[in-house]
Fold:
Amino acid sequence: LLAAFGVGDLAPRMFGTLSTGERKRVLAARALMTDPELLLLDEPAAGLDLGGRESLVRTLGRLAKDPATPVTVLVTHHVEEIPPGYTHVALLREGGVVAAGPIGETLTSQNLTRTFGLPLVVEQRGERFTARSLSLD
Structure:
């Protein structure tokens, strides 16, 4: 599992000597070791640089396409962190559900604008999403 997350060479190292990105990937691999029915990832890319984030997103995308991977719930505030292969989203605001359903139908500019309370544009390229604010002038 460590190799699947790109950190197989870190096995002999002490956890405390790992970088933030390395720790996050080791912890994700550790969570899968017990063969869980559900994997909950709470902002796994927080604190990662762009390279670390993209490496993690690629790994999670590969896992999402593997039928042996458990159902995975990913919590994020950044649509750019949603890996390819994830099929559904739930957009939450103030403890309530703004929208939920298949990702292509639900992750829209209108729904994200309602979720964050400011005008946003969502764009999809392949299986990845980006969001940006509209000019507030």
Summary: The first helix runs from residue 20 to 33. Helices lie at 20-33, 50-64, 103-106, 109-116.
